Amino acid sequence: MFDVLGVPPQVLFGQLLLGLINGSFYALLSLGLAVIFGMLNVINFAHGALYMIGAFVAWLLLNKLGLGYWWALGLSPLVVAVVGVLLEKTMLSRLYKLDHLYGLLLTFGLALIFEGAFRHFYGVSGQPYPIPDLLKGGQNLGFMFLPNYRGWVVVASLIVCFGTWFAIERTRLGAYLRAATENPVLVQAFGINVPVMITATYGFGVALAGLAGVLAAPIYQVSPLMGTNLIIVVFAVVVIGGMGSILGAIVTGLGLGLLEGLTKVFYPEASNIVVFVVMAIVLLIKPAGLFGRER
Amino acid sequence: MAAKSQVNLSQGNPSQATIAVRQPGQDNTTRLILVGLGLAAAVAAPFVLYPVFVMKVLCFALFACAFNLLIGFAGLLSFGHAAFFGGAAYITAHAAKVWGLSPEISILLGTVFAGLLGLAFGALAIRRQGIYFAMITLALSQMVFFMALQLKFTGGEDGIQGVPRGHLFGVFDLNDPLAMYYFVLAVFLVGFALIWRTVHSPFGQVLKAIRENEPRAISLGYRTERYKLLAFVLSASLAGLAGGTKSLVFQLASLTDVTWQMSGEVVLMTLLGGMGTLFGPVVGAGIVVTLESYLAGTNLPVPVVIGAIFVVCVLVFRRGIVGELQALMARHRKS
Questions:
Q1: Where are the transmembrane segments (chain B) (predicted)?
Q2: Among A44, A268, B75, B173, which residue's Cβ finds the most Cβ atoms within 10 Å?
Q3: In angstroms, what CA-CA distances link B275 with A46, A182, B13, B234, B269?
């Protein structure tokens, strides 16, 4: 077989696939953050914790109720959405008239509570979650071995991402949403119930995080700490991409995941910080972000 | 539009405006008496309380005051101050242990390092405003965390242990708990005096103008970016001073000091005590450190309690303890 710059292709493509999977999660999470920020002007620090809860609900469904992966794929995001709606109704909705930073501080506190509570009951070690029978095994592509489940994660998150893009940019409901992001008072004057729309947006945004959690469960282990370290990288992704555009969030997420994978091959020591370095460079060259509008 | 994204934490906190204004004579005397009592308590504290505990409170109080200089007086929420605190702790510990330098030089090196790091991070972060500023500082500090985890000299998971306290100016033996205590108290007072001076200087007034209305400050001819950057560097250096001192108190620099949880903790101390008040962060640091050492002896999970206080503060107690007291006093004075 041929080597790429002295790296065997199995290693290169293996890491690229891992990068693509990480990128899918970055994309799903930064998409949720962007949708929520557009409507609520809140940066949802609890996004990582809700992703973790999504994975944990899947794990609990399997171990307590015997409901498998496919059930979890539907139920988990639903549970997370309900949690999100409750949070929005009882707490976040009180902060809209204040400075945006209070939303960040509130959700930071919530993230600490969720993470601390799960850590208290389940410890820090990861819980294994089995790959569903239907997706076991893999394909030999000639230049690399592709486990079926990993392929499924990439395809599923791409479908969800582009589905969300289509719903927001190309449907009537999405048009209302975009209008309410621009000018909520005017949209309300046209007889659309904006408060309900805000609640639903938050519920949908965090449901995306819950879904990402279920998809992640069989790849990474289910652990209370899985969300928060991820969310800081996703923040950097959001700064790089800018939160102005849905497609921007998706493309930036996938691209940075791939870049991280490449770094793991050629300079593994820097793989943890490459996203932050890119963020610094983007801030120097194009402060508004690659797809952002300066507001 | 820029004005909208700018931080305006003074909303609903009319008492803040009174900080800068000179109080009538009577208030000044009360204030002097209070400060005198506080100083007397600080001098007497090591005879009543466990000295290391009080030193911890003083270090975190200085850290929180440094953080408050940004959020309270310039309206910039940094979510990455642990990088300066913990980074300086590593440098100080390394200088004292490996290079065998004296404590004052080691702490100075740590402080300078934090200031330079603050210059680099600040220059990047002030390119965006509001919520983005918070996210950028958080991401940059996470980079420092990963570096501390991977670099050789930081000792990875173990940190730098057994840091010698040494002899201050070659004379005072800091292994004596009382000598160490009064050294830490002096460091705190110098840092606090610097912050007090900054807030009450023309520079501090410009910072407040930027916090209230940046476009207007720009139109008045102020180059607001330079002011913000200088405030950031000052705040980072003082956070470094606190971190370096802490590494000598505990004779340890560890990963805990550079985590995002540490950045969150200093936000909480400031929020709980009162953002934009001078003494609020000191009160907040005292409460949080006391609470944590109490919780360590119980079965309650610390992060859950900390998170719950965060939520309560944001929802119903945004002025913080000292802020509420000042508002109460202002109302009392009016009636």
A1: 32-53, 60-93, 105-124, 131-149, 179-199, 229-254, 266-288, 300-321
A2: A44
A3: 23, 31, 10, 17, 9
